[in-house]
């Protein structure tokens, strides 16, 4: 099974890019973030014609997450994180696909920091960590996949000294990520590339893609039961160079049966 995450940065505006990548990479499960489309504007027909079933949680102009599965429909198990019934932002979706529980997430950016947006990010992160701990008690094959908006270490950012005060790299956010992983989750990309600068995001400004001035903010965390089956992990970085591409590239893990 190949499980991928892709922040598409507007699913309708970049549908051609998504469909081309699906045809070429043939992932079995895909978690999408930043749909930037209301619920009724999700391109379900085009996705189904590409061979994928889908569930999604849209939101006008911002946010939005979806789970695609090749040849079958994901079985939805949760929509939204527990812990705050008033939180209306579309950032978490969970489903079972072929024996694996998939949590698709889009963690808040948090800038400017400090401030209300940063506080919301830390609160959301705490809710995710609490839910992740409950998931692990079930001892199932689980993947928490998506845009975490955090660079966990200095190896995950092209010039760490320039990001010290950014909400994606502040000590509080990195600590939250490390506490989440310490529950027993395996950071699959780092596991397979322990010493490499592996990036998943390149800004549209200052020729970041051309200079490889990237960030690793998209992560695929595996439960111990699933991590035993980890067979590979990488980034389809060339997708970032396509015309009208997202500023993210798809990242994926391969799990053997």
* Name of the CATH superfamily: Endonuclease/exonuclease/phosphatase
Task: Enumerate the strands of the largest sheet in spatial order, edge to edge or round the barrel.
Answer: 3-4-2-1-14-13
How many runs of DSSP E, i.e. beta strands?
14
Flag low-confidence runs: none
- Tell me which CATH architecture applies here: 4-Layer Sandwich
Q: How big is the Rg?
A: 17 Å
Annotation field: number of helices? 7
Beta-strand portion reads 25-35%
Structural class: alpha+beta
Cofactor: Mn(2+); Mg(2+)
Site (Important for catalytic activity): 218
Pfam family, one: Exo_endo_phos
Protein name: Exodeoxyribonuclease III
Question: What's the structural blueprint in terms of helices and strands?
Answer:
Layout: E1 2-7, H1 15-25, E2 29-33, H2 44-49, E3 52-57, E4 65-70, E5 75-79, E6 92-97, E7 100-106, H3 116-136, E8 142-147, H4 171-181, E9 186-187, H5 188-192, E10 201-202, H6 208-211, E11 214-215, E12 218-222, H7 224-227, E13 230-235, E14 251-255
Parallel strand pairs: 1-2, 7-8
Antiparallel strand pairs: 1-14, 2-4, 3-4, 5-6, 6-7, 8-12, 9-12, 10-11, 13-14
Helix pairs in contact: 3-4
């Amino acid at each position: 099974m190949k499980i991928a995450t892709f922040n598409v940065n507007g699913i309708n505006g970049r549908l051609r890019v998504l469909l081309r990548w699906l045809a070429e990479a043939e992932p079995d499960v895909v978690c999408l973030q930043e749909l930037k489309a209301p619920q009724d504007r999700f391109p379900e027909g085009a996705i189904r014609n590409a061979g994928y079933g889908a569930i999604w949680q849209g939101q006008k102009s911002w946010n939005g997450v979806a789970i695609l599965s090749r040849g079958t429909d994901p079985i939805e198990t949760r929509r939204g994180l527990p812990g705050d019934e008033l939180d209306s932002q579309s950032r978490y979706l969970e489903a079972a696909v072929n024996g694996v529980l998939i949590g698709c997430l889009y963690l808040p950016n948090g800038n400017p920091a400090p401030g209300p947006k940063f506080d919301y990010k830390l609160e959301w992160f705490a809710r995710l960590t609490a839910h992740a701990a409950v998931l692990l008690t079930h001892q199932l094959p689980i993947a928490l996949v998506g845009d975490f908006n955090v660079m966990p270490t200095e190896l995950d950012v092209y010039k760490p000294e320039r990001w010290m005060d950014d909400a994606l790299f502040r000590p509080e956010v990195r600590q939250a990520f490390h506490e989440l992983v310490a529950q027993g989750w395996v950071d699959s990309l780092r596991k397979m590339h322990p010493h490499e600068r592996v990036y998943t995001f390149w800004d549209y400004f200052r020729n970041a893609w051309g200079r490889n001035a990237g960030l690793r903010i998209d992560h695929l965390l595996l439960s111990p039961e699933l991590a035993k089956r980890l067979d590979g992990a990488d980034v389809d970085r060339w997708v970032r160079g396509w015309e009208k591409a997202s500023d993210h590239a798809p990242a994926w893990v391969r799990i053997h049966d």
